[in-house]
Amino acid sequence: MQPMSFKFDPDAAKKAGASALINETGAYEGFILHAQVGFGTDSQSQTMEIKFESNGAKADYLRINFIGREGEPTFGMDLVNALMWTAGVRDLIPEQQQAPDGTVWVFPALTNKKVGFVLQKELRTKQTDGSDTYQMNIRHVFQPGSRLTYAEFAEKQPAEAIDKLLLTLKDVDKRQPAANGPANQQRGGPTGNRYANQANTVAPQSNLQRNAGGRNNQPPQNQPEQWDDDIPF
Prior knowledge:
15% of the residues lie in helices and 30% in strands. By secondary structure, the chain is of the alpha+beta class. The strands form 2 sheets. Strands 1, 2, 3, 6, 7 and 8 form a 6-stranded mixed sheet that branches. The chain has a two-stranded antiparallel sheet with strand order 4-5.
């Protein structure tokens, strides 16, 4: 075996020391590392909080809100069911799990399942110090490899929805206007690659990171309905 020689690559050098975070709008195929229930602190809302990894890059703060503030189901129920199909899971039953700061309700059936997500970057302003931050939002779910959505699979249509969505999907800028500028002046400039290759980008914390799911000792009451036997996986 011969030792390897190197030729300087400036693009690779820029990435040295940078944390591998998913921080760009796009379609990603990867694995669910962990999924648990998040409960609203002052409402009846419930969310699915997901840790996801794609080609070594991670997103620890993905959320699907499926119960609203007043306890009503939201459109997130549709995403949860599409995710179940993509992951090949018929039932999602939360189980209690002890964490350093209390008890959390997890979905073990989703652990290590391969899925596809379309993620949209949302630029935000930190409430603590007014600096810029971001979060990644799930816009769609698809089957890895085929890129089929469940609707396309059920209707025997070609895989087109994801590519069509990506043609028009852009970052969402919800940052507050700069305090010392005009009301319509937003912080920063164009958002195309604002956070690309930044080692110190701080993503918002979730209940997954704080292990704060133990605030509620009851499992969610709105479980997705049982799958019919004739629904193929």
